């Protein structure tokens, strides 16, 4: 039987999704369902002085209006609200807790009605009076009011002196605006109260995280709360922490003792966490032979007034380039906004954007080809920890990516390539992300009919977790993939961390091996008990499961079918559950890498920019499924196009409010913005990182893409735009 691992298997949940059989959190329909609609704050800071819900309550069909005054009891200590992914420092936001207003879009009331339309109309009738307080929402205005957080990487040598003494220097500031996740599926929760127990369907990347959180917030026993999220229409980090809609749905269900659904509108989702705006300052010094002498990276990023959220923006240069002197600083500015949160490749999408634009600018100052500069500076070790990599095929990414793109035909001079009325620009960048693995528990139930159920409490956020787990289980159990069913997205299943950081594939797939081996051992015992067993005397590692049989590895003729073994042993099922603990290995750095090449065409008169070609060459260990992996990387590149060209949450700082809280005015790439994208997976066997050699994909798809495009725009136009997005007004006046 051919191996499923590595093959381009179609999504096992594909049919359920395209036929509508897959139910999302807002799809759950049950009799007596009550609909909740959120009333949000229109000011960013202050107190509620009065809420008048009388007009709303007077509307036929309205059941109740919950506020901080009449809501059911909630915990009164910060610990209860700290979820697995909460920042270490700060007081997590408590939905509908008291009269304090901490950000615009904060939920202040929940209208509960017999149908959604009534709830929505009634919400418009709720009158709220405020006691306003002065607010700040502008990072640029507050940039000097930041405070330093722990540096992500240790300094080396003397970066200031190294920079001062360098033969060629580049220093500049880059800016990435606030961005929102905008997953296709809206955040929603359906909470079902049944005689002291809660069943909650929530859009989340971590069912057990939400379950623990709800137990804390509502002081409930673990077995009284079950959280389910079998399918998700995109998460990208927005669903890592429990969002407020789940608290509101539970409050409604507790108040009414009826099932309640709360679904946010697209506009309301701009009141959730976001990628923090950040100012990134890079200073690179090189000697005349074109290697780095000094690297400095400082980031100033946004958090809320009440929690300190930060990710590693500045340390990535250590993983890519050698430099004897280096220094990294990171400070946070507190603004009156919701706490910023993880968004696809948090820290790297922003930090590597700045780093890779700066490297391009340094290459120009050195009159060196940008790929050549990266090869000259290439580091085979993680510079901050001085560790070798488990594997690093980044050189091969540069080589394969450049060859596919045709980089050798590039003319170095800006504005030197054109096609008709368009200037043509070619740019490139490197990408890097972590290859993480977390402890996870997997349960396998094998039944006598040769079917196996593989279960863990992961959430498939749309990336293909169901599919890759089915592939790995099919190979390890020796069954056809159609005989495998994967169960995910239920807090009652075996322990699994949140689905984020690109760590789920390595975590759950490697965790299949141990229970699969245990199932094989149990089967072998049954097979040995079969009359005149051909496997008598065999040990668990002498046999394999293949084609529905348990077979001697030495002699394929010695075999017992799974069905025969189980039937003769009168075993209806074999159940095994094991935890993969993941030993901490501090002897290697673990990373995925990429090289991105981009072509833009810019209308010389109008400044209209088209990203006509992108090649992304990725080295990410073993690729489990070429089809879903390719889709992930395509999505990452499309998002990188959005980051470079479109995405920007715009605030009216006078009101502290988002102005473009909809996907008509918050621009994301559409079909017309996406042209030729080529993804290359560079072969990268890795025997060190984990038994299956999995590094994980997802985040790496976006890292570096915006930089490659920004560098291409410079090459086309001679105009360096450092603040994203690169809108046409920023390039139309050419140098
Ligand atoms: Mo990950 S930040 O959940 O895309």
Would you kindly provide a brief summary of this structure?
The protein is of the alpha+beta class and 735 residues long.
Shape: globular
Distance between the termini: 62 Å
> Helix/strand/pairing class, anyone?
alpha+beta
Residues in helices, as a percent range: 10-25%
Gyration radius over CA: 27 Å
The stretches of 5 or more residues where confidence is low (pLDDT under 50) are none
Helix tally equals 19
Mean pLDDT: 96
Defining traits:
globular, alpha+beta, single chain, 25% strand, 25% helix, 735 residues, 5-stranded mixed β-sheet, binds dioxothiomolybdenum(VI) ion
Descriptive account of the structure:
Helix content is 25%, strand content 25%. It has 19 helices and 31 strands. The strands form 8 sheets. The protein has a 7-stranded mixed β-sheet with strand order 3-5-1-12-9-10-11. The radius of gyration is 27 Å and the shape is globular. It starts with 13 loop residues before the first helix and ends with a helix. The chain binds dioxothiomolybdenum(VI) ion. Dioxothiomolybdenum(VI) ion binds next to loops. Dioxothiomolybdenum(VI) ion binds at residues 205, 235-237, 240, 342-344, 346, 500, 698-699.
SSE layout and pairing:
Elements: H1 14-19, E1 34-40, E2 46-52, H2 54-57, E3 62-66, H3 78-81, E4 100-101, E5 107-113, H4 116-125, E6 127-132, H5 139-142, E7 147-148, H6 159-165, E8 168-176, E9 188-194, E10 197-202, H7 207-217, E11 225-228, H8 244-256, E12 260-263, E13 278-286, E14 292-304, H9 317-320, E15 325-335, H10 348-366, H11 370-377, E16 381-382, E17 387-388, H12 394-405, E18 418-419, E19 422-434, E20 440-447, E21 452-455, H13 465-477, E22 484-487, H14 504-510, H15 513-529, E23 543-546, E24 549-552, E25 559-561, H16 562-568, E26 573-580, E27 591-603, E28 609-619, H17 626-645, E29 651-652, E30 657-658, E31 676-681, H18 705-717, H19 728-731
Parallel strand pairs: 1-12, 10-11, 14-15, 21-22, 28-31
Antiparallel strand pairs: 1-5, 2-4, 2-6, 3-5, 7-15, 8-13, 9-10, 9-12, 13-14, 16-17, 18-19, 19-27, 20-21, 20-26, 23-24, 24-25, 27-28, 29-30
Helix pairs in contact: 10-18, 13-14, 15-16, 17-18
The site of dioxothiomolybdenum(VI) ion has 12 residues, from loops.
């Amino acid at each position: 039987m051919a191996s499923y691992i590595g093959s381009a298997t179609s999504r096992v949940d594909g049919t359920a999704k395209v036929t509508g059989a897959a139910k999302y959190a807002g799809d759950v329909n049950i009799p007596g369902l009550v609909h909740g609609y959120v009333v949000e704050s229109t000011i960013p800071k202050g107190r509620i002085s009065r809420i008048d819900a009388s007009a709303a309550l007077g509307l036929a069909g309205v059941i109740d209006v919950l506020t901080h005054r009449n809501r059911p009891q909630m915990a009164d200590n910060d610990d209860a609200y700290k979820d697995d992914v909460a920042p270490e420092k700060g007081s997590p936001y408590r939905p509908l807790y008291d009269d304090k207003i901490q950000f615009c879009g904060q939920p202040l009331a929940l209208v509960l009605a017999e149908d959604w339309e009534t709830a929505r109309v009634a919400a418009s009738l709720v009158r709220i009076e405020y006691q306003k307080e002065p607010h700040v929402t502008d990072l640029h205005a507050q940039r000097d009011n930041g405070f330093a957080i722990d540096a992500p990487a240790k300094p080396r040598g003397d970066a200031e002196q190294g920079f001062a003494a360098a033969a060629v220097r580049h220093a500049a500031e880059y800016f990435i605006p606030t961005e929102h996740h905008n997953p296709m599926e809206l955040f929603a929760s359906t909470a079902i109260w049944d005689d002291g127990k809660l069943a909650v369907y929530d859009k989340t990347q971590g069912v057990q995280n939400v379950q623990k959180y709800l137990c804390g917030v509502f002081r409930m026993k673990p077995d009284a709360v079950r959280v389910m999220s079998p399918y998700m229409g995109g998460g990208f980090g927005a669903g890592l922490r429990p969002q407020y809609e789940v608290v509101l749905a539970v409050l409604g269900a507790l108040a009414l003792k009826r099932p309640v659904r709360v679904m946010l509108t697209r506009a309301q989702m701009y009141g959730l966490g976001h990628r923090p705006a950040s100012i990134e300052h890079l200073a690179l010094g090189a000697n005349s032979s074109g290697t780095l002498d000094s690297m400095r990276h400082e980031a100033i990023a946004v958090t809320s007034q009440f929690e300190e959220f930060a990710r590693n923006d500045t340390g990535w240069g250590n993983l890519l380039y050698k430099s004897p002197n280096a220094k990294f600083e990171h400070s946070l500015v507190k603004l009156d906004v919701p706490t910023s949160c993880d968004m696809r490749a948090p820290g790297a999408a922003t930090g590597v954007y700045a780093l890779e634009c700066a490297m391009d600018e340094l290459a120009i100052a050195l009159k060196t080809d940008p790929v050549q500069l990266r090869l000259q500076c290439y580091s085979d070790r993680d510079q901050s920890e001085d560790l070798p990599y488990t594997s690093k095929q980044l050189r091969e990414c540069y080589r394969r990516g450049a060859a596919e793109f045709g980089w050798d035909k590039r003319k170095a001079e800006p504005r030197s390539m054109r096609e008709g009325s368009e200037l043509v620009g070619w740019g490139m960048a490197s990408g890097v992300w972590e290859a993480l693995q977390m402890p996870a528990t997997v349960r396998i139930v094998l039944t006598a009919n040769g079917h196996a159920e593989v279960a863990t409490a992961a959430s498939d956020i749309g990336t293909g977790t169901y599919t890759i787990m089915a592939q790995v289980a099919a190979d390890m159990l020796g069954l056809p993939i159609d005989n495998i069913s994967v169960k995910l997205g239920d807090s009652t299943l075996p322990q699994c961390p949140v689905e984020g950081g690109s760590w789920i594939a390595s975590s759950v797939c490697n965790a299949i091996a141990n229970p699969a081996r245990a199932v094989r051992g149990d089967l072998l015992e049954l097979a040995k008990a079969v009359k005149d067993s051909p496997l008598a005397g065999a040990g668990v590692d002498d046999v394999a499961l293949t084609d529905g049989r348990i077979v001697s590895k030495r002699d394929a003729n010695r075999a017992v079918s799974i069905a025969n073994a189980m039937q003769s042993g009168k075993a209806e099922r074999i159940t095994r559950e094991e935890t993969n603990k993941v030993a901490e290995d501090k002897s290697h750095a673990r990373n995925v890498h990429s090289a991105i090449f981009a072509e833009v065409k810019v209308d010389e008169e109008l400044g209209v920019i088209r990203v006509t070609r992108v090649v992304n060459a990725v080295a990410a260990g073993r690729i489990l499924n070429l089809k879903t992996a390719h889709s992930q990387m395509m999505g990452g590149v499309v998002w990188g196009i959005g980051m470079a060209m479109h995405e920007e949450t715009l605030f009216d700082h006078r009101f502290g409010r988002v102005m473009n809280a909809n996907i008509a005015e918050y621009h994301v790439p559409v079909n017309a913005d996406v042209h030729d994208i080529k993804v290359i997976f560079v072969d990268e066997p890795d025997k060190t990182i984990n038994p299956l050699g999995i590094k994980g994909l997802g985040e790496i798809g976006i890292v570096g893409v915006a930089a490659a495009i920004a560098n291409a725009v410079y090459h086309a136009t001679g105009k360096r735009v450092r603040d994203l997005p690169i809108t046409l007004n920023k390039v139309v006046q050419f140098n």
